[in-house]
Amino acid sequence: MSRSVLVTGGSRGIGLAIATAFREAGDQVAVTYNTSEPPPGFLGVRCDITDQAQVDAAFETIQDQQGPVEVLVANAGITRDTLLLRMSDEDWDAVVDTNLTGSFRVARRAAKGMLRLRKGRIVFISSVVGLLGSPGQVNYAASKSGLIGMSRSIARELGSRGITANVVAPGFVETDMTAVLPEETQKQYLSQIPLGRFGLTEEVAHAVRWLASEEAGYITGAVIPVDGGIGMGN
């Protein structure tokens, strides 16, 4: 059956691959965008997830166009990388407010409709950095690690209503961000990945789509790594 799916930050990269995977499965897919233009073939909704009023308006638009959100993929995020002693309060606040608090805002809003439906799937997109840490990414790692605790708390709160909450933690994936890394840096990362290559956005998308499927109906509170083995159970 076609479901109403929302992917935040779905205009490019991993988010776009996730949105595409759901559309290919026959779902109706809305994507939020902020700075990038919305991709064709989706319900594009401009939304800054740091603004609760914009989040509420986005959900109202989606409900009017394709019904209440049954699957939420909280993917939108930013980076402000710099070393700890150089990191400003603004660098910290911007990343945590977008990546962690923004995900909380959309999950809270989605849960209202899911509780009425007595079913739903919430998937948070974290990162291997949230599990392993990374120099120069104290803010990003903290925000991505926080998604795990949030997901597991939601899983315990809402499980009795047929709502699951899980996390997918990608490793190094071929995106515009990794493409601009210096060749030496790419080699260094590759040397740490047992599979010896960067992941594909589609590989992350397939894991997310599976977690939202009936086949994964008894999985909640889980962290699924899509990282080529670099995390090894962390």
UniProtKB/TrEMBL annotation:
Organism expressing this protein natively: Kribbella turkmenica
Q: Where is the Ketoreductase domain?
A: 3-176
Pfam assignment, any one: adh_short_C2
Which GO terms are recorded in the biological process aspect for this UniProt protein? fatty acid biosynthetic process
Q: Which gene encodes it?
A: fabG
Q: Which reaction does it catalyse?
A: a (3R)-hydroxyacyl-[ACP] + NADP(+) = a 3-oxoacyl-[ACP] + NADPH + H(+)
Domain of life here? Bacteria
Listed binding positions for NADP(+) are: G9, G10, S11, R12, N75, Y140, A141, A142, S143, K144
Instruction: Supply the EC number(s).
Output: 1.1.1.100
This protein is called: 3-oxoacyl-[acyl-carrier-protein] reductase
Please give the subunit comment from the record: Homotetramer.
Assigned protein family: Belongs to the short-chain dehydrogenases/reductases (SDR) family.
Q: What does UniProt list as catalytic? A: Y140 (proton acceptor)
Task: Select a single GO molecular function from the record's annotations and give it.
Answer: NAD binding
Pathway listed for it?
A: Lipid metabolism; fatty acid biosynthesis
